[in-house]
Amino acid sequence: MAEAYEKYLANQHRPLHLAAKKEVYSLLLMRSMMPTEKVLADASLKVLSRQEAQAVLALYSTVDQPITVTQ
């Protein structure tokens, strides 16, 4: 997640506001648990456009791994 986040921020030509950074982080967190298509379907984008969200998610290359909870 951190690598994708840092790559996205490094490629920006303008500084991102905190709300945009939070949305980027949220997208990457969701992506760590589910496929890109599901993230795009479930995300409620308020700051980023769908195209920007797709660019963020394209930087995440690790296989999604949902957390298993055991009791």
Q: Could you tell me the number of beta strands?
A: 0
Poorly predicted parts: none
Instruction: Name the structural class.
Output: mainly alpha
Mind summarizing the main beta sheet? Answer: none
Order of helices and strands: HHHH
Can you give the mean pLDDT?
A: 89
Helix content: 40-55%
Q: Give the C-alpha Rg.
A: 12 Å
Helix segment tally: 4
Give the overall silhouette.
globular
Q: How much strand?
A: under 5%
Gap between N and C termini? 27 Å
Give the total of domains.
1
Describe the protein in words.
With 71 residues, the chain is mainly alpha-helical. It has one domain (2-58). It is built from four helices and no strands. The protein has helices at 2-10, 18-31, 36-42, 50-58. It starts with a helix and ends in a 13-residue tail after the last helix.
Give a quick summary of the entry:
By secondary structure, the protein is mostly helical. The protein has helices at about 1-10, 20-30, 35-40, 50-60. The longest helix has 14 residues, at about 20-30.
Notable features of this structure?
mainly alpha
Layout of SSEs?
Blueprint: H1 2-10, H2 18-31, H3 36-42, H4 50-58
